[in-house]
Amino acid sequence: MQKLIHRLLQANFFFKGAAFYATLIVILLSLKPNSPDLEPWTLMFIRGDLVQHFICYFGMTVVYLFAFYTKQNALRKSVICSLILGYTLELFQVIPIFQRDFDFTDLIANSSGVLGAWLILRGFFNYSVQE
To answer: What's the rounded Cα separation, in Å, for the pair 130 and 123?
Structure first.
């Protein structure tokens, strides 16, 4: 099964386009002003937005790995790109024009999502992510 997935991932043009559009969507959602009537929610005592950050950056790391799959050190590049994206967008939220607030716990959730994806991808694609 892993060999079949490996062959499918060789079509990197599709995945590079998916990574580009996913990055644009994350930028848009991260920098748009919050809705004032949005009600906060929790998942087992964890703020819902932290769950969303975790899932988002987990997914971004996976998408970036697929985009960089045919390159050397693809997993390392995908982790670095995801971390840079997450930290940069969180720092942009300090700028008043975006009407957002910087939150250190968001950075931790972003990093946790990237770390979780790294651990899973490192195990699943062990034969192809030798760095």
So the answer is: 11
Amino acid at 1: M
Please give the radius of gyration of the chain, using alpha carbons only, rounded to the nearest integer.
16
Residues 6+ apart with CB under 8 A from 67: 12, 15, 16, 18, 19, 78
Confidence (pTM):
0.85
The answer to whether the CB of 74 falls within 8 A of the CB of 8 is no
pLDDT, one tens digit per residue, over 35-81 is 777 677 677 877 878 999 999 999 999 999 988 888 888 899 999 99
Number of C-beta neighbours around residue 10 at 10 A: 9
Cβ proximity of 50 and 94 under 8 Å: no
Instruction: List beta partners, residue 47.
Output: 42
In degrees rounded to 5, what are phi and psi of residue 35? Answer: -75, 130
CB atoms within 10 A of CB 68: 20
Kindly tell me the burial class for residue 74, based on how many C-beta atoms sit within 10 Å of its own C-beta (0-12, 13-18, 19 or more). Answer: buried
The amino acid sitting at 6 is H
